[in-house]
Design brief:
By secondary structure, the chain is mostly beta strands. It has 4 helices and 22 strands. Helices cover 9% and strands 42% of the residues. This is Peptide N-acetyl-beta-D-glucosaminyl asparaginase amidase A N-terminal domain-containing protein.
């Protein structure tokens, strides 16, 4: 997606799919456009291809991502639908996000006003565009916490339309907060004589409610408080941190409420420009391995090995019409359980939460939401970390020539993180928590003289 500026078997299967996509792209393009030296066609190249195709219908093409439907739990009533924002994103690159004041919809107050009464919350993004334009990345934040990260569909002459419906029930405490907050949407777009597409978008919240019932078991329902780990308004561009190399760090200083008994850090990320296809990079481009690390006060607490999302303009946009790639319209987020580390966080002081990317090249957009569950009595909790082990990342790269002009690069990585701890609560007694990650990776890249110029 253009921002302008696991296991070994899974990696092998993905590499095979990638090769298939490339072969499909080659068969449909003239030689000058089918070069294997790049994995993305420009918007103008796609427009040139479409000029030679039969005239498209007058109606816009509707794009969609295959996903599960969102169904409210039995006994729910609703929906109550509220339009949060309508905007046309023309030349918005490096400009401030579009903002709107947010207060809980009146129907939520009529249902009782409490977050626990929300049985299902669905955030719907619906947009359209016509003309020549790249696919663009966009984000939606409420009170600084990110709710949705997505990539636009890539437009065509007759226009395009698409929608995203995301289950945002886990953000119920934000949606029901009585204090007014700010909704922010950033979609960096450029409109000029060549790129004419303007994205017209509507953002709607659909709420379903349950009748008063027994509260969920401790720590299993939506969090009581969500604290953003992101940049603050006012600013230009999105609220995400921009990571341009492996030395950049996105950092926020946060104080955790002393009544917390569970904590989960939800990480949002997307990769662009030189790292859009990071899993194909050779040694000269920092290799094909990337890892997002999360540290608290300098101690590593978790790692994310990202799923390789292909955006709607990736490789060949004709591959993603009308069904887009997995995660392209609704990029995944990743949870890291940090409850075992509450022993160092319940002192009422601010602590540094750091996000970085191993081997990163320009650019990664990263932020996070800290989900916190609080003791219902409001009384302080106590906690301790009983074990912690996080050896350094184990990674190797081997090189082997294979005949004239051909080279093989083999990359492997292994990561292990584990922690255990307990939390003593006034309401629930002693709670124990454990967090374990065991991640392995291997990658093989073949580089021949004919394609070496790509890197």
């Amino acid at each position: 997606c253009m921002p302008l500026h696991s296991r070994s078997t899974m990696a092998e299967h993905f590499a095979q799919l990638l090769l298939l996509f490339l072969l499909l792209a080659i068969t449909s393009l003239p030689i000058s456009m089918a070069s294997l030296h790049k994995l993305r066609l420009s918007a103008s190249e796609v427009a040139a291809i479409e000029e030679r195709a039969p005239p498209p219908p007058d109606q816009p093409t509707t794009f969609f991502e295959v996903d599960r439907p969102h169904r409210p739990p039995p006994g729910s009533f609703g929906p109550c639908s509220t339009v949060l924002l309508s905007h046309s994103f023309a030349y918005t690159y490096t400009k401030p996000p579009v903002t709107a004041a947010y207060s809980p919809p009146p129907c939520l107050a009529a249902a009782g006003g409490h977050a626990s009464l929300i049985s299902l919350a669905v955030l719907e993004w619906r947009a359209a565009c016509r003309g020549v334009q790249y696919d663009r990345i966009f984000g939606v934040w409420l009170g600084g916490a990110e709710l949705l990260r997505g990539c636009t569909a890539e437009p065509r002459r007759n226009g395009i339309a698409w929608s995203v419906s995301k289950d945002v029930t886990k953000y119920a405490s934000l949606l029901a907060a009585r204090n007014p907050s700010t909704l922010a949407v950033y979609l960096g777009n450029v409109v000029d004589e060549q790129y004419t597409g303007v994205y017209h978008a509507n953002l709607t919240l659909h709420l379903y409610f349950r009748h008063p019932s027994q509260p969920p078991q401790p720590g299993l329902g939506p969090a009581d408080v969500i604290v953003p780990v992101s940049r603050s308004l006012p600013l230009n561009d999105g609220l995400w941190f921009q990571i341009q190399n492996d030395e950049d760090v996105g950092s926020a200083s946060l104080a955790v409420p002393t009544s917390a008994y569970r904590a989960v850090l939800e990480v949002y990320l997307s990769y662009h420009a030189h790292d859009e296809f990071w899993y194909t990079n050779t040694i000269g481009s920092n290799g094909p391995f990337r890892e997002v690390t999360v540290s608290i006060d300098g101690d590593l607490v978790g790692a994310v090995w990202p799923f390789p999302v292909i955006y709607t303009g990736g490789i060949n946009p004709l591959l993603w019409r009308p069904i887009t790639g997995i995660g392209s319209f609704n990029l995944p987020s990743y949870d890291i359980e940090i409850t075992p580390f509450l022993g160092k966080l319940l002192d009422g002081k601010a602590h540094e939460f750091d996000l970085s990317v191993t081997n990163a090249k320009d650019a990664w957009f990263i932020d996070a939401n800290l989900h916190l569950w609080l003791d219902p009595r409001g009384a302080p909790t106590t906690a301790s970390t009983t074990s912690y082990d996080a050896p350094p990342l184990d990674t190797t790269t081997a090189f082997r020539p294979d005949g004239p002009g051909t080279e093989f690069y083999y990359t492997t990585a292994f990561r292990r993180i584990s922690a255990t701890g307990w939390v003593q609560t006034p309401s629930y007694g002693k709670i124990t928590a454990a967090w374990t990650q065991r991640l392995s990776y291997d990658n093989t890249n073949e580089v021949s003289r004919a394609t070496a110029s790509r890197w």
